[in-house]
Specification:
single chain; mainly alpha; 11 helices; rod-shaped; disordered N terminus
Length: 322
């Protein structure tokens, strides 16, 4: 019965005027087909070819697009700019081993410069003060012996001058042909040696200042050239000219030049300062040498028994020449 109804429905649907009537009969026949144990092939084909509802496609598309949106989030986060710590200490730690060695050497040179400044300031200050007091003490002395008594227990270069003059007079007593001019000449030679030694002592450390002031900029420049060369090598390997990539290496290289200037500029200034200070101290030393030679000349012009350090005062005869 059901098969006959389905055949009749399909026959009615073949004609254009009976399509509407066929659809109505189909609605009536479908429930009966669902209850039947063996549905007809025509009804099964109609049910299988029924279109699925269209609105369900949009949620599926959104669900499929959600993972793609989520996977793009890490990519966006990884493109954030990388920041570099460009503090001097960080740049030193990130620099090349050779550039580090240059920086350490320049820093040590700077420490040496300030050490020389402190040491030479104390040394020259004490020497000038002692020399000034010694010159003040012997200003009223008429003989070398009186000057030596006034300087008793006070170590200074003036005491060395007077001791050299007295020693030369003592050594010349046994020479019968000794003349005043010869004694003065020999005493002046010994005093000149003392003056030169005192000048060398006053200039001690200034050679290091001159060396640091002259070569430190070039040493720092060598470190800069080496660091920039390494930076360009890194640029070629990274195959990028982005400033964020090359700037840290160039900054580390320029730090070497900065440290070189920090070491050189104070060294030059301190060297010039001590050059003037040593010249002033040298003038005071020359004053002491002149005072000792004048007292020696006065002693030699006195009678033989009144000369400072004269053995005749102790019973030994002295033959004065001249």
């Amino acid at each position: 019965m059901i098969v006959k109804q389905s055949l009749s429905v399909t026959s009615l649907m073949r004609g254009r005027p009976g399509r509407a009537l066929g659809l109505a009969l189909l609605v009536a026949v479908v429930p009966q087909l669902a209850d039947a144990q063996q549905p007809g092939p025509a009804v099964a084909s109609v049910v299988q070819t029924a279109p699925s509802p269209a609105p369900a496609a949009r949620p599926v598309a959104l669900a499929e697009a959600a993972p793609a949106i989520q996977t793009t989030a890490p990519a966006i986060q990884t493109t954030a700019p990388v920041t570099h710590d460009l503090s001097p200490w960080s740049m030193f730690l990130n620099a090349d081993i050779l550039v580090k060695a240059i920086m350490v050497g320049l820093a040590a040179a700077s420490v040496l410069t300030w050490t020389i400044l402190l040491a030479k300031t104390v040394e020259l200050g004490l020497a000038r003060a002692g020399l000034s007091r010694a010159l003040a003490r012997i200003a009223g002395a008429g003989t070398l012996a009186e000057a030596m008594r006034d300087l008793s227990g006070r170590r200074s270069v003036v005491e060395r001058f007077i001791a050299a003059c007295l020693d030369e007079v003592r050594l010349s007593q046994g020479n019968r042909d000794a003349r005043q001019d010869g004694i003065k000449e020999r005493a002046a030679s010994r005093i000149s040696e003392i003056v030169k030694a005192e000048g060398r002592s006053a200039r001690r450390g200034m050679g290091a200042l001159a060396t640091i002031g002259s070569i430190s900029p070039f040493v720092g420049l060598f470190g800069t050239v080496w660091g920039i060369m390494n930076s360009f090598i890194g640029i070629s390997k990274a195959q990028t000219t982005n400033l964020a990539v090359v700037a840290p290496g160039i900054a580390e290289a320029l730090l070497a030049t900065a440290i070189g200037l920090v070491a050189a500029i104070p060294a030059v200034i301190i060297y010039n300062h001590f050059a003037r200070a040593t010249r002033g101290y040298g003038d005071l030393v020359q004053r002491g040498a002149g005072a000792a030679l004048r007292m020696l000349s006065r002693d030699l012009e006195r009678p033989a028994g009144e000369r400072s350090g004269d053995p005749a005062r102790h019973g030994a005869p002295l033959r004065a020449a001249g």
